[in-house]
Design a protein that fits this description.
The chain has 5 helices and 4 strands, in the order E-H-E-H-E-H-E-H-H. It is of the alpha/beta class. The protein has one domain: Lumazine/riboflavin synthase (Rossmann fold). It has a 4-stranded parallel beta sheet with strand order 2-1-3-4, with helices on both faces. Helix 2 packs parallel to helix 3. It starts with 5 loop residues before the first strand and ends with a helix.
């Protein structure tokens, strides 16, 4: 039996030139893996992701959530604060809702050029989401 995996995407619009490329690579990989992207929510930035992730996790037809974002280093430590807090809360939500939430967020501490070289983080996050859903379902059988 083939397990259909339904995904929700939460995408940051900050650094949209990069997150758009990440989103497209992620969509293509989801299709390649036979997963369906049921919902996409675009939020202002990575820090804003947890609430959107929570709303998607509450949906019965979402098996996992993929986060897609890019945090580029600035002149302060703001990028580190944003990524660390978002990642912590995203992980907490996965445990709270008992569904995978994958981290397709590049950064902190990277330049714009490094961010462009890491657009495959969206693909990796989709891969991890699909694997986690399938492996967790296998545990239930």
């Amino acid at each position: 039996m083939v397990l259909m995996v339904n995904l929700g995407f939460v995408i940051a619009e900050f650094n949209r030139d990069i997150t758009y490329m990440m989103e497209k690579v992620a969509e293509e990989h989801a299709e390649f893996l036979g997963a369906t992207v049921k919902y996409k929510i675009v939020v202002p930035g990575v820090f804003d992701m947890p609430l959107a992730v929570k709303k998607l996790l509450e949906k019965d037809d979402v098996d996992a959530v993929v986060t897609i974002g890019c945090v580029i280093e600035g002149e302060t430590e703001h990028d580190e604060i944003v990524v660390h807090n978002a990642a912590r809360k995203i992980a907490d939500l996965a445990l709270q809702y008992d569904k995978p939430v994958t981290l397709g967020i590049s950064g902190p501490g990277m330049t714009r050029l490094q961010a462009q070289e890491r657009v495959d983080y969206g693909k990796r996050a989709v891969e991890a989401a699909v694997k986690m859903v399938k492996r967790l379902k296998a545990l239930e059988e």
